[in-house]
Amino acid sequence: MKFISKEWFYALCIFLIPLSVGMDLPGGASISFPGELMLAVLAGMVAFQILSKPLSYKKILLHPLSLLLLAEFIWMLISSFFSELPMVSFKRVIMKGIFLASLFVFTIQWAEKDSNKIKYLFLYALGLIIPVVYSEFRHYWLGMDFLEHVSLCKPFFDEHTIYGAAIAFVIPFAAVAAGNTQSLGIDKKYRIWIFALLILLVAGEYFAYSRAGVLSLMASLILYVFLKLNVQFKHLLIGLACILSLTFVFRSEIYSFTKSVSYQSNTA
Fold first, then answer.
1. Which of the 8 DSSP states describes residue 222?
2. In angstroms, rounded to a whole number, what is the distance separating the alpha carbons of residues 267 and 188?
3. Which 8-state DSSP code applies to residue 183?
4. Closest to 123 in 3D by CA, of 11, 7, 263, 239
5. What is the pLDDT of residues 1-30, one digit of tens each?
6. From CA 142, how far away is CA 214, in angstroms rounded?
7. What is the DSSP letter of 158?
8. Can you tell me whether residue 24 is helix, strand or coil?
9. Residues 6+ apart with CB under 8 A from 218
10. pTM for this predicted structure
11. Per residue, what are the HEC states of 227-239?
């Protein structure tokens, strides 16, 4: 009898990724525990299945996107032989292979079931609850002056920009899920909990002071509006060209403004 199925192991892994903490290993290496360790185990399972039952993965592996990622992986592997720091490069190749096998190949296979198509996003969002609550509690305890404490999200995230990016990744999904529970096959009784999750994530993003995260959310909102208005692709290109043109024309002013911002993201 199996102690735990591969699907349950994957679900637990996705939930624990935001809760993982950095751990130093002998030789100067480090690992995010238990997330990356579980991903490595899952990648081993996927690799074994691909070798033993290649036909069951044929459709996934021969997809154009899979071939493109495989070409990139092979190029990384070849480049590592000519690296000035080969051990560092090969470690990166190994991690890339683990992520491709676990977070790409198996995620596609897992999402083939309709009931699983959005579960992994919910699992990741639920895993973020503890880091967000923990960070905001420390934020409040230290006087709500996050600019002086950009690493309040430790030990779950190294600093606030990564923390803000992790939250920004799931906010659009949570917002769509909160307003479209029926079309997504979510029971209406969970709507209030999804709204509560959305409010918590938005609060966490706001107090993360991550400009990149906020800008990405603004861009996703603009794209969502365009999609709802059925704006044609050529109009999107025209709008993008106008934005780039204005950026070029006012590049000096923009550069002067960014230089005037004294806050640095890497302040410890």
1. H
2. 44
3. T
4. 11
5. 344 578 889 999 999 999 999 887 766 667
6. 23
7. S
8. strand
9. none
10. 0.80
11. HHCCCCHHHHHHH
